[in-house]
Amino acid sequence: LPTCRGTTSDATEETQDLCDQVKQQVEKKTGVNYVEYKAVKYRSEVVAGTNFLIKVHVGGANYIHLEIFRGLPHNGGKVSLTKVKDHQTKDSPLQPF
């Protein structure tokens, strides 16, 4: 199972782009259409590709955590949503789930 042992950092354009690529999948899994959907923090771990664990602000005091995998470039660099954990807060620890 992915662990994302890396340290937590502020989100970047790259992490927002990853989140945007899986937004429809996230909305399908949670049953919510997010007006606000902004990556704020992330952790990553390089495996045969990269696992990302990302905290996304979805409005008000509401956050969700996304686990996203991005394959290696020579394998097409495909981005896929692994898991979604909703009902999180700004202070919820960004840990594997």
From TrEMBL:
Pfam families: Cystatin. One of its GO terms (biological process) is immune system process. Residues 2-97 form the Cystatin domain. Gene3D superfamilies: 3.10.450.10. One of its GO terms (cellular component) is cytosol. The keyword Cytoplasm applies. One of its GO terms (molecular function) is cysteine-type endopeptidase inhibitor activity. InterPro entries: Cystatin_dom, Cystatin_sf, Prot_inh_stefin. It is found in: Cytoplasm. Its main location: cytoplasm. Keywords: Cytoplasm, Immunity, Protease inhibitor, Thiol protease inhibitor. Belongs to the cystatin family. This is Cystatin-B. It comes from Sander lucioperca.
